[in-house]
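Hi V.,

You were right to ask for the full record rather than a summary. Here it is.
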Amino acid sequence: MSELLRSGVERSNVERVGVERLGAAPSEEEIDAWHAVVTAAHTHDMPAGVPGPGRVETAGQLRIPASRSRIVRLVVPLPGGGGPGYAGVALLRLFEDAPNRTTAWIGRLAVRPDQRRRGIGTLLWQEIQAVLEREQRQSVSVEVEIGGEGEQFARNRGFACGLQLVVYVQRIADAVAGDVAGDAVGPELPDGYRFVEWTGAVPTAYAAAFAGVRNAMADAPMGELDQEPMRWDAESITAAQSAYGERGGALFTVAVAAPDGTHAALTEVGLRSPGDVRAQQYETAVAPAHRGLGLGRAVKLRMLQLLREQEPPVREIATHVADDNGPMRAVNKMLGYRPERSVGIFQARVPDAVLQTLRDGAEAGAEDGAEDSPGQPAEW
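Predicted structure:
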C-alpha cells in the first residue's frame, strides 16, 4: 500500500477489531445498527436544523445500488462483541460507466461520537484503500463539511478539495409569502413550449427526450475532480429514476418540451424518505440551444408549485451549487434560496506506481491462468 494511502494512521489503545462487509441484502438488524451510527454522527457533526437521514433512506442506500455502480458496505463492530451494534460504517460506490471506471465515491464514512479517536475511521479508510487498489481505481472522492472533523480527517489522509460547493436552502413558506411562486396560472413559457411532469420513473414516451436534456449537465462545473458527468439514454435514465423509488424515495420531475418535441429543460427534486420535510434538489439543466429564455427559472417555479401540493407539505428544498456556477446561483437567489453551509468534494489519488504494480501482477496472473488476479473486479 502506498505511503500516501498510509498517511495519518492512528494508533489505538483499545481492543483491535476488524472491518467486516455486509452482504447485498442486509438484514433489518444490520440496517438498524448502521442507521444508529449515521444518525448519531449527524446529530454530533451537523448544524442544528439540518434534518438527518431517515431510516428508509438508509435501508435503500444499503440495498439498492446507485445507477451504474456497485457498492461495498463496510462495518466495524463495537468492541467486545456484545451485540449487532457498529462503531463505524462506510459505503463505497464503484462506478461502472466507462468514463468513470477509474474512480470511486465514498457515500458514507461515519464513526459513532463515543468511539472516535480510537482508530475506527482509519480501519475503514484502510479497507477502502485496499478495495481501490484491487479495483485499480485511480482516485476516490467524498463530500465533507468545510471546517468540520471530516475535513481534517480527509486532509490528514491525502485528500485535497477539488470542488467547493455551497448548500442553499429555500423555505417554501417564505417563497409563497413573497409571491415567488407566481399566481395560480403558473410560470409562463415562450410560445410553443410546454411543461411535462411526472412522479417516479420517466414515462416511456418521454424517456429519450429526457435523456437528451439530462446530458446538458455535461458542461456543469466539476472543478479538479476526475469524475465525469454520466451520459444518459432512454434505458439508463429510466433505470436510474426507477431505482430512486425502489430505495423508498419519491422523485418529482418537471421538464419543458420544445416545439420540435425535444426536451429543453428539466429539474428533479426528491424526498429520500417518506415524511421528509426537506426535499433534495438534484439536477437542473437547460439544453444549450434553449438557454437565455428563462426556462431554468420556469421549471423551478413549477416544481415549487407541485411541492406545495404534497401531503404532508414539504417545508424546504436544499440544493448544492458550485462556487463558479454563476447562472444557477443567480436563479436560486431570485427564487429566495439562502446559503446554509459550505461543503467540499475532496479527492485522493492512488499513485501511478501502485497501480502499475497491480497491473503487472494482473498480467502475470492472466498468463499463468489465475482466476483471481488483483486487476479483476471483485464480486460483491
